[in-house]
Every structure is written in structure tokens, then in C-alpha cells.
Design goal:
Elements lengths: L1 E3 L4 E7 L6 E6 L5 E4 L1 H9 L43
Antiparallel strand pairs: 1-2, 2-3, 3-4
Length: about 90
């Protein structure tokens, strides 16, 4: 399925090549591909309105030349997850 607006164009497909089904999201402008598993998708469904607004700023990650997502402020990273807030592509 292709979804487009004046701000973004993506293709959504179901990917079965991993350990289980996941949603494959391809950015048609850059060719960048990301995946969301069922738990990640359910989490999106439960987020309160506006919870993703800070991630919609393209300067956070889209326009960086170093290929690394900008670090989030440590106060915004849940301490219980134990995951790093910086991710390489």
C-alpha cells in the first residue's frame, strides 16, 4: 500500500523474512527502509495524542550527514528499557 501527503510518501508491505511478521516501511523520497514488529505497532496504537510530535522534526535525524540519529535527551529515554537512544543506520 502506498500512502502519500505533501510531507511524506511511503510504501507499506508485510515482511515475512524475519523471525515473524512485521511491517516494512519504505520512504519513497530517500529509499530508507524501516521495520515495525507487532509490539512496536501496538505501542503506536496506545500512544497519547501528540506523543510523536518531537520525532516529526526532520532536523532530529533526517538531515544529518553523519548517518547517526541525534541522541535524545536522557530525561526522555525510559531508564527501564536499557536501550541506547543513538542508533546507526
Amino acid at each position: 500500500m502506498e500512502l502519500a501527503s505533501e510531507f511524506a510518501s511511503v510504501v507499506l508491505t508485510l515482511d515475512m523474512a524475519g523471525n515473524g511478521p512485521r511491517l516494512r516501511i519504505e520512504d519513497l523520497r530517500s529509499g530508507h527502509v524501516g521495520f515495525l514488529d507487532p509490539l512496536e505497532l501496538e505501542t503506536l496504537a496506545w500512544l497519547p495524542d501528540g506523543a510523536l510530535h518531537r520525532f516529526l522534526d526532520p532536523s532530529l535525524h533526517r538531515w544529518r550527514d553523519d548517518g547517526i540519529v541525534a541522541s535524545l535527551d536522557s530525561r526522555d529515554t525510559p531508564a527501564s528499557t536499557g536501550t541506547s537512544s543513538t542508533r546507526q543506520r
